[in-house]
Design a protein that fits this description.
Length: 201
């Protein structure tokens, strides 16, 4: 299955994303005389959750957008990668989607490598993307590629999200950085939770 760059004929197509998650990162605010910010604590859901959201391909809100796709043997589209080269020399993964039937097949990794190829070709300084704190499988997938915390919007979740499990989370992957600035997470590391399932997007 080859990754192909697609034209504007795919513009406006609505993609429904479904995933299962057993964990979320709970945002905890910090405030002190010499420290403020937020930390995220991994918390299990009482019952595994099935989440759903949708997005529209090439919705016109991004600059210098590119769209790539993967089709199966019958011509059905089973994966999309949408990117944007932003004005401040950042490369954004707008959407990375793999059909549920093809997850854990390595297709998500191939699309991510395509994004990296495009980013390096563009000579950008950093790659960024956004997910939600409840999308534990996607967060783990991105972290395996070296993405780290970049920012969050603690008020960005839906009004019916009583426990604050759907906080918008931005992640970054610095590119071409000096060796004096290692791309690591300055944090205490804890073991992965028991019986977790890591699913590629």
């Amino acid at each position: 299955m080859n990754i192909m760059e697609l034209d504007a004929s795919h513009k406006g197509r609505r993609i429904v994303v479904r995933y299962k998650t057993a964990f979320y990162y709970k945002a905890l605010s910090l405030c002190g005389d010499d420290l403020f910010g937020a930390v995220f604590l991994l918390v299990p859901f009482p019952v595994a959750q099935e989440k759903q959201y949708d997005f529209t391909l090439l919705d016109g809100s991004r600059e210098r957008s590119r769209l790539f796709g993967v089709a199966n043997e019958t011509g059905e589209w089973i994966g999309y990668l949408e990117t944007s080269h932003e004005w401040n020399d950042r490369f954004r993964i707008v959407n990375l989607w793999v059909d549920e039937s093809y997850r854990r097949s390595g297709l998500g990794g191939k699309l991510m490598h395509k994004a990296l190829d495009c980013a390096y070709e563009g000579g950008v300084r950093v790659m960024v993307l956004e997910t939600e704190t409840c999308n534990y499988p996607a967060i783990q997938f991105y972290r395996k590629f070296g993405f780290v915390f970049n920012g969050c919007d603690l008020t960005g979740h839906m009004s019916d999200d009583d426990i604050g499990c759907e906080v918008p989370l931005e992640m970054r992957l610095p590119l071409n950085q000096p060796s004096s600035e290692p791309n690591d997470e300055r944090c205490l590391r804890s073991p992965h939770p028991q019986n977790s399932t890591q699913t590629r997007p």
